[in-house]
Amino acid sequence: MEPVREERAADYPRPPALVASDAHVVVRALGELFCDTRRALRVLETFHPPTYYLPPQDVRLDLLQAAPGRSFCEWKGLARYFDLVVGSQRIEKAVWTYPAPTPAYGPLAGWFALYPGRMEGCWVDGERVRPQQGGFYGGWITSRVVGPFKGDPLHPELI
Questions:
Q1: pLDDT-derived band of residue 4, with 50, 70 and 90 as boundaries?
Q2: Alpha-carbon distance values, 67 to 61, 90, 92, 96, 112 (Å)
Q3: What is the mean pLDDT of the segment spanning 76-96?
Q4: How many distinct helices (H) and strands (E) make up the chain?
Q5: Is 74 exposed, middle or buried (0-12, 13-18, 19+ CB in 10 A)?
Q6: CA 72/CA 47 separation, integer angstroms
Q7: CA-CA distance, 127 to 135, in Å (whole number)?
Q8: Of 29, 53, 51, 26, which Cα lies nearest the Cα of 37?
Q9: Is the pTM of this model over 0.90?
Q10: pLDDT tens digits, residue range 30-44?
Q11: Spatial distance between the Cα atoms of 67 and 21, rounded to a whole number of angstroms
Q12: Diameter of the chain by CA atoms?
């Protein structure tokens, strides 16, 4: 078995890199399995833990309802948001996508990212993810990724 290689978020590039991943990614929310995939895309940006983008084929699209509002990323373009809904339970603006990203991030079109801190749990290769701190960030922290990370109050210079 090959040892797991550590990654330093400080070494991630700017503009961010888009990297395919065959890691086993599982997301549970509101008592449901939301995603189970081995074909995620990771966005790696300086001082951010990876953000995982999940293929629509492996996401429970029936649990998503379009939410009002948009945001703009200088690298990826215009994002739209979704609430995650199961029965009467709702997690507002928990999931986003880039329907028409900039050309450099074209492979992200229609794939979904989420805030791991709003989910019941997110796992990468069986390891439970710790969410990136700060309400705006969607990074996934595992033992494989070393900080400091943007959003961490112990590192105000990165906030």
A1: low
A2: 14, 11, 7, 9, 14
A3: 97
A4: 0, 15
A5: exposed
A6: 19
A7: 22
A8: 26
A9: yes
A10: 999 999 999 999 999
A11: 28
A12: 46
Q: Give every CB contact of residue 148 below 8 A, 6+ residues apart in sequence.
A: 9, 10, 47, 154, 155, 158
For residue 75, give Cα distances in angstroms to 13, 14, 15, 22, 84: 12, 9, 7, 24, 25
User: pLDDT per residue over 44-59, tens digit each?
Assistant: 999 999 999 999 999 9
pLDDT tens figures, 100-158: 999 999 999 999 999 999 999 999 999 999 999 887 789 999 999 999 998 877 666 66
∠ Cα 36 47 111 (to 5°): 30
Alpha-carbon gap, residue 95 to 117, rounded angstroms:
11
Per-residue tokens: 20:
């395919």
Give the pair of three-digit tokens for residue 34: 């939301």
Average pLDDT, rounded, for the chain: 93
What is the distance between the alpha carbons of residues 56 and 14, in angstroms, rounded to a whole number?
26
